[in-house]
Amino acid sequence: MTGAVPATTVLIVDDDQAIADTLAAIFRMHGYTARVAYSAEEAIESIASCVPDLALLDVNLPGMNGIDLAIVLKANHPECHLLLVSGHERTGSLLEEAAKKGHMFDILAKPVHPTFILERVKGLMASGAKGPRGRFD
User: Fold this and answer.
1) Please, which contacts does 114-120 make with residues 24 or more away whose CB atoms are closer than 8 Å?
2) Distance between alpha carbon 69 and the CA centroid of its chain, in Å?
3) CA atoms of 135 and 117, how far apart (whole Å)
4) Counting runs of H as helices and runs of E as strands, what totals does the chain give?
5) How far is the C-alpha of 136 from the C-alpha of 116, rounded, in Å?
6) Contacts with 3 (C-beta within 8 Å, 6 or more apart), sequence order
7) List of domains in the chain
8) For residue 39, what are the CA distances in angstroms to 20, 43, 66, 74, 96?
9) In this predicted structure, what is the pLDDT of residue 40?
10) What global pTM score does this model have?
11) Through-space distance between the first and last CA atoms of the chain, rounded to whole angstroms
12) 44 versus 110: which is more confidently predicted?
């Protein structure tokens, strides 16, 4: 258990169960409390009972996409840090639509190494900032 900000809860939302479960295991190994949801709707249900410190959201989810989920989370739980990941080309157009409505998000391009995600999360939590906005790294 190294590197986690004390008592930090992370919600990982990805419809690929292997990815979500693997990321949760990695976060737990580094001292985080990690929960998973395999859809945006499941994430909303989970957050109703316990708001995480940070939500790691895949953009391409069935039903509600990760950007729309991020907008809902930002509106209802502004204290929750958001970090999105995507490996799809259509993310750019979704980001543009969200930006036109005043929503900017930190998005990492897949594939992204778990160590990089951990470093980004640790930095977000330590700084108290909600992260750089409008970037697709």
Assistant:
1) 114/22, 114/23, 114/26, 117/23, 117/56, 117/83, 117/85, 118/3, 118/26, 118/27, 118/30, 120/83
2) 10
3) 15
4) 5, 6
5) 14
6) 30, 31, 118, 122
7) 9-136 (3.40.50.2300)
8) 11, 6, 9, 17, 22
9) 97
10) 0.82
11) 27
12) 44
Number of residues that this document lists for the chain: 137
* Rounded-to-integer distance, Cα 61 and Cα 36, Å: 14
* 18-33 pLDDT, tens digit each: 999 999 999 999 999 9
Report pLDDT digits (tens) over 42-87. 999 999 999 999 999 999 899 999 989 999 998 999 999 999 888 7
Burial 100-111 (b: 16+ CB within 10 A, else e): eeebebbbbeee
